Amino acid sequence: MLFSLKSPNNSRREGLIRNLGSTANMSDVQEAPNQLLDVNLHENWSCIQATESGPRSESEHLQVTIGATVPTGFEQTAADEVREKLGSSCKISKDRGKIYFDISVESLAQVHCLRSVDNLFVVVKEFKDYQFKETKEEVLKDFEELAGKLPWSDPLKVWKINTNFKKKKTKRKKIKQNADSHILDYYENPAIKEEISTLVGDDLASYKDEKDESSKEETQSKMLKFRVTCNRAGEKHCFSSNEAARDFGGAVQDYFKWKADMTNFDVEVLLNIHDSEIVVGIALTEESLHRRNITHFGPTTLRSTLAYGMLRLCAPQPTDIIVDPMCGTGAIPIEGATEWSNCYHIAGDNNPLAVDRAANNISSLLTKSQIKEGEVSWGLPIDAVQWDICNLPLRTGTVDIIVTDMPFGKRMGSKKRNWNLYPACLREMSRVCRPGTGRAALLTQDKKCFIKALSGMGHVWRKVHTVWVNIGGLHAAVYLLKRTPQAFVHPSEQDGERTPW
Amino acid sequence: MKLLTHNLLSSHVRGVGPRGFPLRLQATEVRINPVEFNPDFVARMIPKVEWAALLEAADTLHLVEVPKGPIEGYEHDEKFLRQMHHVLLEVRTGPSLASLATAG
Predict the structure, then answer these.
(1) Looking at this predicted complex, what is its ipTM?
(2) I need a labelling partner for B24 at 20 to 30 A (CA). Which of A79, A307, A308, A323 fits?
(3) Hey, are the CB atoms on A342 and B94 less than 8 Å from each other?
(4) Considering chain A, what is the average pLDDT of its residues?
(5) How many distinct structural domains can be found in chain B?
(6) Per the database record, which ranges form the THUMP domain (chain A) (predicted)?
């Protein structure tokens, strides 16, 4: 039986296949316009102020509460990451996609390195049981009065440090772009991560004696532009989110003498209302972090934060072989290779376009991860291959983890096709997956079809957990499966042919 | 693809058995690129290697200094690990369509 293995490369010649693996061929790679690529700062530490004693001590011990939005359903996974990387425990807003944790402000940069969070904000105040008055007028008046009573000072300090931090990045980016055509990623490089807290520390030191021109202007003029974003959920409210934002915003403007600007703002104030719970915060991220790794989008590209959550569910161990057999643009294996670089990741798809895109995304990432010309590249442990999911060219029982986004049947494929595809997928995945220790995290919106397909596979797959998620408005599920110890038996070696159901 | 990936692949032909044949490679397209050496990673990959397929691939690509099999105490043998690191992760090539076997 013939199957094709194609290379994710533009020049395809009959019989000869090249496959983009560890290092990009720079002349082939198009640098996709992408403002989400982060910038490497590490080389010019000389620009940073030497730390001085004195005015540091006050800001140094600043503790704040940070709120993070995460994919709904993965709050616990995100909390685990926070505990692992920051040592903080989290308060989880279950099924609402939010977690809260306390940090000292020096850890701020590390907070930006979290891979399970979409957006970050600093909490100004939380009201666990806000007492709403009876009429709309009274409620809105309360919001107006609230603005002047909130503890803005510390959160604004954090906001400022965060903004300076980002400003330095943009400045470096300009320097870097002139000197060097490679755009390096600040967060991706492990060697940099260690120096991150140094940067924030230096920011704290230079906070008082400003040499940086732009931030000096800011402190002096205080003419910041702002807007208020209100998210409201609950049935008993007698006001709309627009009204709350408008009136609260008006009061904020009066209090700070800031200028309101819906599109070009410096400060984004968040007013989150859920039933009788209100959280006022200041945003620390502008655009969502979730598309960070993907420079070449496909029609159904998965959020990186969701990809991270699914991978983490499988608890990857060093040198695990992790495969995404329907990788699309490669969101999952790329996230995997970045975060679990001591595992080996293989991205595969039956669509050559998808494999192309995945390879391009890998190349972009590799561009980011190279330190300098001439130095050894990190060479991410990832490869991209074209294959047929129903007949994977992988050796039996060699894959430790399978993580994939299965065709929903809405934007890709069809529901009818899923009835044949799902059982065939599960069967083939059970063959390549290592018996006993192997596991799979499979995302799908076609839950009915999946459960039915799974019901005939109890001898090889055991469902251990389900996470309910929301994908672009669709109610989907991530099924965590464990591979049973039973070895895969070839259908031809059994009595009669196994039917999918 | 890297030779490590190649080693994990096989032509899975129904009826022939779970292993199938290794993919044949063509020697025309070979690239070497430096990759940071991680001895721990390499050492743990050794048990997963299908040696026959690896040696055949190395032979086809005319690679030199390829260990013939795991040696005793390989976990601590830096020379061995570096050789394996080079072969598995730094050599890149592609398989040929024409060379895949069909069951008789």
Answers:
(1) 0.83
(2) A323
(3) no
(4) 76
(5) 1
(6) 168-284
Strands, E assignment, A275-400: 277-283, 321-324, 344-349, 382-386
Q: Do B96 and A16 touch (CB under 8 A)?
A: yes
Q: DSSP E strands: which ranges in A284-333?
A: 321-324
Among A188, A324, A342, A344, pick the best mutation site for testing chain B contact (most B Cβ within 10 A). Answer: A344
Query: Which of A335, A302, A305, A334 lies closest to A444 in space, CA to CA?
Result: A302
Inter-chain CB proximity B12 and A393 less than 8 Å: yes
Q: Are A323 and A432 in contact (CB under 8 A)?
A: yes
What range does the domain containing B66 cover?
3-99
Mean pLDDT over A373-381 rounds to 56
Give the mean pLDDT of A438-447. Answer: 95
Chain B from 16 to 75: CB within 8 A of any A CB = 17-20, 23, 26, 28-29, 33-36, 38, 40-41, 44-45, 48, 50
Query: Is B38 a domain residue?
Result: yes
Residue (of A452, A497, A458) closest to A481 by Cα position: A458
Using only C-alpha atoms, what is the Rg of chain B?
14
For the ranges A41-55, A250-264, B8-22, the lowest mean pLDDT is seen at A41-55
**A-B contacts (CB, under 8 Å):** 125
Q: Is B7 within the bounds of a domain?
A: yes
Q: How confident is the model at residue A282 (pLDDT cuts 50, 70, 90)?
A: very high
pLDDT class of B36 with cuts at 50, 70, 90: confident
- Confirm if A229 and A272 have CB atoms less than 8 A apart: no
Distance from CA of A433 to the nearest CA of B (A): 12
Out of B8, B17, B95, name the one closest to residue A394 (CB). B8
Instruction: Name the minimum distance, in Å, from the CA of A385 to any CA of chain B.
Output: 8
Band of pLDDT at residue A356, cut at 50, 70 and 90: confident
Q: Decide if A118 contacts A303 (C-beta within 8 A).
A: yes
Identify whether B104 is part of a domain. Answer: no
User: Per-residue pLDDT tens for A79-99?
Assistant: 999 999 999 888 887 778 899
> Which one is predicted more confidently, A429 or B31?
A429
Minimum mean pLDDT among A256-260, B7-11, B71-75, B99-103: which range? B99-103
Question: What global pTM score does this model have?
Answer: 0.75
Structure tokens at B56: 């055949």
CA distance B56 to chain A (A): 16
Q: Which residues of B touch A22 (CB under 8 A)?
A: 2, 33, 35, 89-90, 92
Question: How close A459 gets to chain B, by Cα (Å)?
Answer: 18
Could you give the domains of chain A? 304-490 (3.40.50.150)
Instruction: Give whole-number Cα distances, A491 to A277, A428, B15, in Å.
Output: 56, 11, 9
